[in-house]
Amino acid sequence: MFKISILLFCVLGVLCLTQEEADEPGEDDTKDDLSVLECPPFLLKNATPLSPCICHEGLDDDAIFIECNGLLAPKQLKQITMKLGRRRIDALEIKESNLPHLIRQLLGGNAIETIFMRNNSINSVDPTAFAGSENLAQRIDLSANNIQDFKFEMFNQFSELTVLNLGENKLTKITSAGQIQNLHVLYLYMNKIETIEPGAFNLLEGLEYLDLRWNDLKQLPLGALTVPSPRWQLRIRNNELPTLEGAFQGGVVPFLVEASYNSITQLKEEVYRPVLEGAMTEGAQLYLEGNLLQCDCDVAWLVTNITLRRFVDNAVCSGSMSNIQDLMPEEFETCQGFEPTTESV
Ligand SMILES: *[C@@H]1O[C@H](CO)[C@@H](O)[C@H](O)[C@H]1NC(C)=O
Ligand SMILES: *[C@@H]1O[C@H](CO)[C@@H](O)[C@H](O)[C@H]1NC(C)=O
């Protein structure tokens, strides 16, 4: 009930904003002072009872955290961020707001370290929306919105950005994930991604974790998952991929691949041996649950290598439904090119 009455007040035009402005004539004093780590007085709790944004101090030593609830439009947020006077903010969290377009300079040029904007009906993001945070933003969460098209290049100058979450949006195609120098974690889970262009990730030199779970991938062109970083993992479960063949071409093979619930039927040695060798080195696994594998002579290379096959999780054969780990290597000895190994005794 309380929340509803706040919303109603703000619906009556910019009333709540103009009131704040009147309260706070000296706002320009902090212009460009990125060392100030104090809440602006106009956003302190109880300063303006109707403000959708409230600033909290002292969570950490010098930390300031701004929380906004129920913003009615992007312009309303921009009016507030402009008033902050280009300040350094540790975290900004926006909830239950209507921000269909993240407009130009939305964050008012302030430098913000962590930006949470989950579930605010965002459709589009202007490339300058986050300007001002280039040297500070470490984590940006835009998950659970309606973004269909995203220009990753907008973050190319964001030297500290390590985690970008675009999960639970409506992306259908990844042409290029930009050149975000320090990006370690990229979440793209639960979108509608059908297409990834060759080399889409090949400028993300720091990438360690790529999450493409729950998308609509039916095929991957050569080099679609070429990643230059020396050590990375791929989460790609719940797509409809028949194979990962050629996907890593020219890049580094991930040491952990979670490919459960795809449409993989064949485990070709040249595709999956490098993955398993990486898993073995790192103590990771290749996850294959929910794929129906053909356990014919094509998997002899795996079945007969007891050491290697331990690094496959839940690889189940169609028909017999037996786990590859339980197959008898002896039964594959007649496959061409396979000699009985002492290991199998
Ligand atoms: C998303 O936000 C709406 C209101 O803006 C709310 O009703 C809904 O519960 C939120 N969903 C999640 C998953 O947080
Ligand atoms: C099993 O595979 C590993 C990794 O490729 C290899 O080093 C080892 O020699 C193989 N063992 C046999 C018995 O083929």
TrEMBL record:
Pfam families listed in its UniProt record: LRR_8 (PF13855)
The entry's keywords: Leucine-rich repeat, Repeat, Signal
Signal peptide (UniProt feature, chain positions): 1-16
Domain of life: Eukaryota
PROSITE patterns, A to Z: LRR (PS51450)
Record's keyword annotation contains Signal: yes
Listed PANTHER family: IG(IMMUNOGLOBULIN) AND LRR(LEUCINE RICH REPEAT) DOMAINS (PTHR24366), LEUCINE RICH REPEAT CONTAINING 53 (PTHR24366:SF96)
Protein name: Uncharacterized protein
Annotated organism of origin: Artemia franciscana
